[in-house]
Write a structure and sequence with these properties.
Layout (H helix, E strand, L loop, with lengths): L16 E2 L2 E2 H8 L3 E5 H14 L5 E6 L6 H9 L3 E4 L2 H10 L6 E3 L6 H10 L3 E4 L2 H14 L3 E6 L25 H9 L7 E7 L10 H19 L6 E3 L18 H11 L6 E4 L3 H4 L3 E12 L4 E5 L8 H5 L5 E3 L7 E7 L8 E9 L6 E5 L19 E6 L2 E6 L4 H5 L12
Parallel strand pairs: 3-18, 4-5, 4-11, 5-6, 6-7, 7-8, 8-9, 9-10, 10-11, 13-15
Antiparallel strand pairs: 1-2, 3-12, 12-13, 12-17, 14-17, 15-16, 18-19
Helix pairs in contact: 3-4, 5-6
Bound molecules: ligand LLP.
Ligand LLP binds next to helix 10 and helix 11.
Length: about 425
């Protein structure tokens, strides 16, 4: 990995300033809602991770799904990071952003034949294989092309990640990976794989983990299996420890683990393993670097509740609707105003278009700017155009300057590809 110099995020106690940029002025220039990311904050996380990994044979493969904007991927490419992808679309983005295929690992339970063929053609480093069927398909496609694919077994260690059920992946009832018993059979039969070199292990048990215990347990299980395989004559060249490190969504309440402590757990659990360690962090690198900048449309006094209606919606940030996720919400100005309790909602015609219930905020008025915090991961990347709301702008900040890295979608762009049913054909 190449070293990146950490540049300090210009410190500011003023919530209206991010990475040296006045967010009110920015809102006037690019409009609201918009996703805003601090490049300095992302570079700081990159540098902290690189420093924690010092001395290890490690490759970071950024989990593209967290934030797949090309400008964010470029920051990862600049740091020498690779990528963890789960679709042909994510591969395409990586290649366009300058992440070489040789640093890309391909995960996911539903890789299609076309996606596998395209990834082999591009030369991805490794497939994280999640089923026997996929393994056979990989063998057939690699055989047809007369190439050898490198593959890791995604182990499902049956460990509870102690996080939200919808973002847990490492229990045996989840669709991800295979149990150690099945993986053992794969290795026993691996001599028959003429075009797949099964020489890696992969484990990812969940996301937004705030405790090291499940991570330690999953890695210990993986390391024990690695030793067993070595004894049986199966050399393992890489262990991919997945992602899942949690961040602070709720100030004072969420206590993320320190990156050095996380890496210490990896060092300890994988002690004695001489191959390459792959890491797939997503959220930890980008979540806290982002805010969703939005304006109050109006205050609506319901019979029972007072609604703060924002111009942002679940289409821009679906985490609260999908996982009841908490995001801190901060008005940009008027902190001296008395607190008022709001249900913070968007304009979409769904009751679940709610960012927060019973949230105490300084009293707001129509036109006020509000930011929803820690939206750099799984915000824009999970956006939709439901209710025919065009995708919002994304802006990268860097020490007092800004660059629009996704322009606000126009209505024409939103309907691009749609057409009246005119040219009827028989299949
Ligand atoms: N590797 C694999 C194989 C994964 O499935 C994931 C996330 C990651 C790495 C990255 O995990 P991270 O470091 O970001 O926690 N939409 C949800 C999160 C879903 C995560 C899915 N897989 C959310 O907004 O919380």
């Amino acid at each position: 990995m190449t070293a990146t110099t950490a540049r300090a995020v210009p410190a500011s106690a003023d919530p209206a300033i991010l990475d040296g940029v006045d967010l009110s002025a920015l809102a006037r220039r690019v409009g609201t809602p918009c996703h805003v990311y601090s490049a300095s904050a992302i570079r700081q996380r990159i540098a902290a991770l690189q420093s924690a990994l010092h001395g290890l044979d490690a490759q970071v493969c950024y989990a593209v799904k967290a934030n797949s904007n090309l400008a964010i991927l470029q920051l990862m490419a600049d740091a020498g990071f690779g990528a963890d992808i789960v679709s042909g679309g994510e591969l395409w983005r990586c290649l366009h952003a300058g992440i070489p295929a040789a640093r890309v690992v391909f995960s996911g339970v539903g890789k299609s034949a076309d996606e596998i063929a395209d990834a082999l053609h591009a030369g991805v480093a490794r497939f994280n294989v999640e089923s026997a069927d996929e393994l056979q398909l990989l063998q057939r496609i690699a055989g047809k092309r007369n190439v050898t694919a490198h593959a890791s077994v995604r182990i499902n260690p049956d460990v509870d990640a102690l996080t939200h059920a919808k973002i847990s992946t490492g229990k045996s009832e989840n669709k991800f990976g295979v149990g150690i018993d099945e993986a053992r059979e794969w290795f026993a039969a691996s001599a028959r794989l003429t075009h797949v070199r099964l020489d890696g292990l992969h484990v990812h048990i969940g996301s937004q983990m705030l405790s090291l215990d499940p991570i330690r347990a999953a890695l210990q299980r993986t390391a024990g299996f690695r030793r067993e395989l070595a004894d049986a004559g199966h050399a393992i060249h890489s262990i991919d420890v997945g992602g899942g490190l949690g961040v602070c969504y709720r100030a004072g309440q969420d206590h993320p683990v320190a990156i050095e402590d996380y890496v210490t757990v990896i060092r300890e659990a994988l002690a004695g393993f001489n191959g390459r360690i792959l890491l797939e962090p997503g959220r930890w690198l980008v979540a806290e670097a982002g805010v969703l900048l939005t304006r109050v449309i109006r205050i609506k006094h319901g019979r029972q509740r007072t609604f703060l209606v924002l111009d942002a919606a679940m289409t821009d940030l679906i985490r609260p609707s999908l996982y009841d996720a908490w995001h801190d919400i901060v008005p940009l100005a008027h902190h001296e105003r008395l607190l008022q309790t709001y249900d913070v909602v968007g304009p979409v015609c769904e009751s679940s278009d709610t960012f927060a219930r019973d949230r105490a905020l300084p009293r707001c008025e129509a036109g006020d700017l509000v930011m929803i915090k820690a939206t750099g991961a799984y915000g824009a990347s999970m956006a939709s155009t439901f209710n025919s709301r065009p995708l919002v702008a994304e802006v990268l900040l860097d020490q007092g300057r800004y660059a629009v890295v996704r322009r606000r979608q126009s209505l024409d762009e939103m309907v691009a590809g749609e057409q009246p049913a005119q040219n009827w054909e028989e299949p």
